[in-house]
């Protein structure tokens, strides 16, 4: 890299300004922030009307896409993708774009609060768009807050101290993991609703069973010719949506000799399936049968002996059970067998069933028919991130159930919660909220007044991601190992404090092994200690002789990555010789309808408090600001239901009332509800809006410990009520509405 | 009075800035919609008003259904935004000259401080891409800190629409001018194109045959312009794909 920067290039590219000069001179953390100034006052490093750009990392999901945030007068005004970052190459999803509505959200926790469990953290007003909502005042100072954390660490036995963390940010997880190994406190547990709906544990477990090593598979959609996706909603929220969307664009690329095809197997047409060339409305629970049948038919077409993995399946039987015609299966098998680049992806709801592990293994084994392991357009193990020894997946719901039980039994005396909202995200049947009664002290580090913060004794708010230091490991989606770096792009808006700083200071106060476990001045020093080993690694995107320069580049480029492809090739010697279970899923509950909860592609797990995400129309239904239940129009007619009729959905675990959306692309025996709404707190734009489908989920698991969230059967009851849904699409003319032909 | 057969439709190729949108790879993810809102200080209107069709999307993703279950298909997602017509139907109906054609940039401008809110332009737009500020929608503190200083904030009673991010065009031109050069193709792009994870949207000079957008239009060869038969000379080309 050239050292001859013009000032303009320096400001634009570097995105450093005052922040880096502070690093280089080693000032305290306060001076590392960019100050927010009134528009009258111009910070000296800024020209009037000139923006400064900072590279950082998106924290709206765990993928770790790089951002470059445009700031003006110390205010963040636009988030764009970081074109250098190999994961997202300058692109962002809708949630990344709306991250500013989190930063500037009118309902944030404004300072440390001692709080009575259940008390509100902001005053509610009748109309979120007209009236004032007042945030709760901070009633502590940070010295007392830090002392509280220190006392909690000292007072209890290490085994009675637990951390529950979200899937971002990795640097804080590393800090707590270090604290745990050196002091004996319970190892930190990570969870996120997205990983639950992705069925990550099942995917990882299936890969381990088949390939004998642990890791997260990576599917090279962009290099494939034909993609068979069994429930993987990779264009929405699955694993790393921006990267997979780029892959999809590659699949379709017009310059290719042949336009690649996507075939999606799922009972409800997701927006991924909407893009597919063929949507196969498979009967829920028969995915394993279909995958194996396609494999067998494809191998038979090629001739030769039938391997053990595919010898037990009867394609005719699979066809009748799955509701797919045998001719269709044969046609698909032919397509799969004859393609030069066939790829099969298991994911999402297909794995979130009682036989999810068998589905994942069957679909992964289907790739053996295409012999695509480790080849372009095939299956890989994701590259490990630079400072990652092995893939660590977030906790499965089964593990969360065990953790919740520990809380309820009083085995944990103090619980620290960061970056996750288990009261909202975990299925109600786990009774996480009630389990907190067994914990003497709950300390939340929530940025927003979420449901879990409401149940805490103390809320010590962390900065928003755009005000924070840190890094995120890119666990999948890029060929190169990538560590995405975060830096504050604005000074903190409120009296918040970085949780890493709080923990470091509290560890010092607690003394003894705590102090020696975290011997750092502050978060930035800790960060440097973690990033420093990268200086000696080969093939870096940049290198530097000393840590200060290295850190300056790390901030400038938004992280560090290698220039080499480090995806691993799975070992598949024995893959054909395993016996695979051709089982159907079992469904819990009495009802007549299969129930498919899916993550809202626009709101996802934590977007409900961002008003522009609420106002984005759902890609398939165009509904905004609410939750709906999707019912096939024919079924709706049989039941005497029309759009906006409120129905009660009853499962073995609970019931919900919500309006009907007649969805033309769903099996008549299946209903679907998006996840993302139904908050009872979380700020004015989220609260009291829609329902949470996890309330319907029973505690059934697959063999990998993932929740069988798509393994329920439910009943529909009429209520006689109406609730109009806001939708972008006009209702006029749809099903004869407004034409005098309404049914 | 002019009889319909006497109306001469302009067929001359016009336009300077244009877009190509590849519907085959658009996934309908709404990233462009969010990016547009963030860049252009577009207000959100809330559940009730959005239900009345008052939401302020300058770009929206259309999808239609074909057939019935199980042979139902979703048509390729169609991002719909102001087509920056060369012969725009919105322009002649404005009594206040608020929606005028820019001679320099060949774009349809919306001059907010001239607009008196007759909504004739929205009525006359065959693409239905104009949105009207029915109220002064609240963006409570500190949401207003996010305002883009390069873009006006609109008030009640004013029509608004996609500008092809004219603030970005001007900024790129200013930068190029101060450096004594021409604007280079790909030097800047619109907010929607910049965000699009599938790179389905490409923006650039349609009057430059060497620009990426012109090259793409030629390479695909099957581009369509919507409602071209109306003689609006739209500057957005769609690839249906498939």
What does this structure look like?
The complex is a heterodimer of chains A (743) and B (242). Chain A contains 24 helices and 26 strands. With 743 residues, chain A is an alpha/beta fold. In chain A, a hairpin with an 8-residue loop joins β1 and β2. In chain A, the strands form 7 sheets. Chain A has a 6-stranded mixed sheet, sandwiched between helices. Chain A has a 6-stranded mixed β-barrel with strand order 19-24-21-23-22-25. The longest helix of chain A has 16 residues, at 287-302. The termini of chain A are far apart. Chain A is globular and about 70 Å long. In chain A, 62% of the residues are buried. Among the domains of chain A are: 197-385, Dimethylsulfoxide Reductase, domain 2 (3-Layer(aba) Sandwich); 593-736, Beta Barrel (Barwin-like endoglucanases). By secondary structure, chain B is an alpha+beta fold. Chain B has a single domain (4-239), classed as Alpha-Beta Plaits (2-Layer Sandwich), CATH 3.30.70.20. Chain B has helices at 31-39, 46-51, 120-124, 166-178, 191-195, 212-220, and strands spanning 17-22, 59-62, 65-66, 73-74, 78-81, 99-101, 108-110, 131-132, 159-160, 201-205, 223-224, 236-239. Chain B has a 4-stranded mixed sheet with strand order 10-1-12-11. In chain B, β3 and β4 (73-74) form a beta hairpin. The model of chain B has no long low-confidence stretch (mean pLDDT 91). The interface between A and B is large, with 82 and 60 residues.
């Amino acid at each position: 890299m050239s050292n001859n920067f013009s000032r303009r290039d320096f400001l634009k590219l570097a995105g450093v300004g005052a922040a880096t000069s502070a690093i280089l001179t080693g000032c305290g953390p306060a001076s590392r922030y960019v100050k927010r100034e009134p528009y009258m006052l111009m910070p000296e490093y800024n020209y009037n009307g000139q923006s400064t750009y900072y590279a950082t990392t998106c924290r709206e999901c765990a993928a770790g896409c790089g951002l470059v945030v445009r700031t003006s007068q110390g205010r963040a005004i636009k988030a764009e993708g970081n074109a250098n970052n190999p994961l997202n190459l300058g692109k962002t999803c809708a949630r990344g774009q709306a991250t500013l509505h989190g930063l500037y959200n009118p309902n944030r926790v404004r300072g440390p609060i001692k709080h009575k469990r259940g008390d509100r953290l902001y005053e509610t007003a009748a109309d979120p768009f007209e009236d004032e909502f007042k945030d709760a005042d901070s009633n502590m100072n940070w010295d007392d807050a830090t002392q509280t954390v220190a006392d909690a660490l000292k007072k209890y036995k290490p085994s009675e101290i637990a951390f529950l963390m979200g899937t971002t940010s990795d640097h804080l997880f590393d800090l707590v993991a270090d604290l745990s190994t050196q002091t004996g406190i319970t190892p930190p547990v990570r969870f996120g609703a997205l990983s639950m709906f992705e069925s990550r544990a099942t995917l990882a477990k299936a890969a381990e069973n088949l390939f004998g090593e642990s890791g997260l598979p990576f599917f090279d959609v962009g290099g494939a010719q034909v993609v068979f996706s069994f429930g993987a909603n990779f264009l929405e929220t699955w694993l790393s949506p921006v990267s997979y969307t780029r892959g999809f664009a590659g699949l379709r690329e017009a310059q290719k000799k042949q336009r690649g095809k996507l075939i999606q197997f799922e009972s409800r047409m997701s927006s991924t399936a909407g893009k597919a060339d063929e949507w196969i409305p498979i009967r829920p629970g028969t995915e394993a049968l279909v995958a194996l049948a396609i494999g067998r038919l494809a191998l038979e077409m090629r001739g030769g002996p039938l391997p053990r993995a595919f010898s037990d399946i009867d394609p005719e039987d699979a066809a009748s059970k799955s509701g797919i015609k045998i001719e269709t299966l044969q046609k698909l098998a032919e397509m799969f067998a004859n393609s030069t680049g066939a790829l099969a992806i298991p994911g999402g709801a297909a794995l979130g069933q009682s036989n999810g592990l068998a589905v994942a293994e069957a679909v992964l084994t289907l790739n053996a028919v295409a012999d695509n392991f480790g080849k372009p357009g095939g299956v890989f193990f994701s590259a490990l991130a630079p400072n990652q020894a092995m893939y660590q997946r977030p906790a499965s719901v089964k593990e969360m159930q065990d953790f919740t039980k520990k809380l309820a039994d009083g085995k944990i005396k103090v619980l620290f919660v960061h970056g996750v909202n288990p009261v909202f995200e975990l299925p109600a049947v786990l009774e996480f909220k009630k389990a907190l009664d067994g914990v003497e002290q709950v300390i939340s580090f929530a940025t927003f007044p979420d449901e879990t913060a409401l149940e805490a004794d103390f809320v010590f708010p962390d900065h928003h991601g755009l005000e924070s230091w840190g890094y995120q490991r890119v666990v999948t989606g890029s060929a190169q190992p990538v560590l995405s770096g975060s830096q504050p792009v604005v000074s903190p808006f409120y009296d918040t404090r970085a949780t890493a700083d709080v923990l470091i200071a509290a560890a010092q106060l607690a003394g003894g092994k705590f102090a020696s476990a975290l011997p750092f001045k502050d978060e930035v020093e800790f960060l440097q200690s973690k990033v420093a080993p990268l200086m000696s690694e080969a093939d870096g995107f940049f290198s530097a002789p000393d840590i200060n320069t290295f850190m300056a580049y790390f901030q400038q480029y938004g992280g560090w990555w290698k220039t080499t492809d480090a995806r691993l090739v799975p070992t598949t010697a024995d893959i054909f010789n395993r016996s695979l279970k051709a089982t159907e899923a079992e469904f819990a509950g009495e009802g007549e309808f299969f129930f498919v909860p899916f993550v809202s592609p626009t709101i996802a797990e934590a977007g409900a408090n961002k008003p522009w995400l609420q106002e984005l129309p759902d890609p398939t239904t165009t509904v905004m600001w609410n939750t709906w239940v999707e019912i096939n129009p024919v079924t709706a007619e049989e039941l005497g239901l029309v759009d906006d009729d409120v129905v009660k959905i009853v499962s073995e675990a609970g019931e919900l009332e919500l309006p009907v959306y007649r969805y033309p692309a769903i099996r008549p025996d299946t209903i679907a509800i998006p996840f993302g709404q139904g908050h009872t707190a979380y700020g004015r734009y989220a609260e009291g809006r829609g329902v949470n489908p996890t309330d319907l989920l029973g505690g059934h698991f697959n063999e990998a410990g993932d929740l069988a969230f798509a393994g329920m059967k439910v009943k529909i009851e009429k209520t006689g009520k109406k609730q109009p849904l806001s939708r972008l699409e006009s209702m006029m003319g749809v099903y004869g509405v407004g034409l005098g032909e309404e049914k | 009075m002019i009889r319909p057969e006497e109306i001469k439709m302009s067929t001359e190729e016009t336009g300077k800035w244009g877009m190509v949108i590849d519907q085959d790879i658009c996934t309908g993810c709404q990233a462009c919609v969010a990016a547009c809102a963030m860049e252009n200080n577009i207000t959100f209107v809330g559940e009730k008003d959005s239900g009345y069709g008052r939401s302020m999307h300058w770009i929206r993703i259309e999808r239609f259904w074909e057939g019935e279950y199980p042979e139902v298909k979703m048509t390729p997602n169609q991002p719909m935004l102001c087509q920056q017509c060369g012969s725009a139907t919105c322009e002649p109906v404005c009594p206040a000259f608020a929606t005028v054609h820019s001679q320099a940039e060949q774009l349809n401008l919306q001059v907010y401080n001239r607009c008196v809110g007759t909504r004739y332009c929205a009525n006359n737009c065959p693409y239905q891409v104009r949105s009207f500020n029915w109220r002064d929608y609240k963006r409570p503190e500190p949401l207003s800190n996010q305002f883009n200083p390069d873009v006006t904030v609109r008030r009640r009673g004013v029509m608004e629409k996609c500008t092809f991010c004219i603030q970005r065009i001007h900024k790129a031109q200013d930068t190029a001018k101060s450096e004594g050069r021409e604007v280079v193709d790909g030097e800047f792009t619109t907010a929607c194109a910049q965000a699009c994870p599938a790179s389905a949207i490409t923006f650039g000079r349609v009057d430059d045959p060497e620009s990426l957008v012109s090259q793409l239009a030629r390479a695909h060869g099957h581009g369509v312009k919507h409602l071209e038969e109306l003689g609006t000379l739209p500057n957005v080309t769609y690839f249906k794909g498939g």
